[in-house]
Amino acid sequence: xxxxxxxxxxxxxxxxVSLLRGGRNPIHGxxxxxxxxxxxxxxxxxxxxxxxxxxxxxxxVARSRPDPVIVDLGxxxxxxxxxxxxxxxxxxxxGIDVSKPAARRLAxxxxxxxxxxxxxxxxxxxxxxxxxxxxxVFAPRNAVETARILRPGGTWLIATPAARHLAxxxxxxxxxxxxxxxxxxxxxxxxxxxxxxxxxxxxxxxxVTPEEASLVLAMGPTARHxxxxxxxxxxxxxxxxxxxxxxxxxxxSVDIAEYRLAAPPAR
Length: 267
Ligand SMILES: C[S@@+](CC[C@H](N)C(=O)[O-])C[C@H]1O[C@@H](n2cnc3c(N)ncnc32)[C@H](O)[C@@H]1O
Known about the structure:
Elements: E1 17-18, H1 32-44, H2 48-63, E2 69-73, H3 79-87, E3 92-97, H4 100-106, E4 113-117, E5 131-137, H5 143-149, E6 150-161, H6 182-190, E7 194-208, H7 210-219, H8 222-225, H9 228-241, E8 248-261
Parallel strand pairs: 1-4, 2-3, 2-5, 3-4, 5-6
Antiparallel strand pairs: 6-8, 7-8
GO molecular function, one term: metal ion binding
Keywords: Metal-binding, S-adenosyl-L-methionine, Zinc
Protein name: Methyltransferase domain-containing protein
């Protein structure tokens, strides 16, 4: 790939392009084990409800716009982006993640999606006003850059865990609980660039096997705080507390905030 100033960037054999700025990048994102756990869990289905809810909103917005482009920021393995593209057949997608193992999956996520390795905190390698929908699903939010890449009237979907998300698994120290003030803080970080349209609440209980419960802990931030034995204890303790043997009823509680890019102030 070549940019307008003549810089060349290699497309990796696995299909992604690294557009990380600077030399050594201190942020690596999710590691190979976390990404593998994420891929296995999503293939098994307990998060399908969340995936379909986010994809449905993104596709609804995309279908209302000409030649729509959907950008997923911190896209992980690209399952949310792929599901949205599937529901909006005229759309194209770009997935961005700083993690190389994620980018490898992302490159295969959907025929209409491209995969880029970049750090959302150091400026997005995308043109201004190129996207109709931006999605940030359990990933870092850069409001200034997201506002820049959205076309006028564009939409930003931000999915965050709400109170009691995965609560049954949070019975031992080190399993991350949900900050109850997250919604309040989210609004504060968006400033006046975005106007809230709606908060879509996904609330469900899904039955998960012990393996699936382990995958949930292995793919998320808890994997950084607890080793595999400690995570196994968290799963055991959750099953014991629920007097469950084969399946644990697990709470999914996710808020999907839909924001519209504010019109620039009149001069
Ligand atoms: C909790 S995962 C969520 C992934 C995906 N959106 C999902 O919900 O399945 C957070 C993702 O953000 C990526 N990430 C973390 N920091 C990042 C950064 N500064 N720039 C780009 N991606 C980042 C991680 O590599 C990881 O894939």
